[in-house]
Amino acid sequence: MRALMLACLLIAWPVSARDWTGEEIGWGAAAAAVRLADWAQTRNIVRNPDRFRETNPLIGEHPSRDRVDGAFVIGSALLFGLAHYLPEYRKSILQWFVVIGGGVVARNASIGVRMRF
After folding, report:
1. pLDDT in tens, 18-43
2. Is the pTM of this model over 0.70?
3. For 20, which DSSP code?
């Protein structure tokens, strides 16, 4: 619940962020693609508790689909809210997420976790 309130505050924060550059939009699209891939894999983990377990301690080893969906919606709002309202760090935030999140998606794929909503 605290994360949801923080996400709402970030979205409503009356800060004037500058427009996104073309390069930042590209990194944002890459981050969104990684986010969706991770979400789809995590939902597949939920459907296969006998084969896989989740390693994110914030949602637990065998979370419900609702918990996964909520965590990804809130996490996405936080990621893009931070990137938007901290324009001096925007590119770094998005690049960091693409690298870390991309590694998680690649690891999941290497152990057979498919992307299925």
Report:
1. 999 999 999 999 999 999 999 999 99
2. yes
3. P
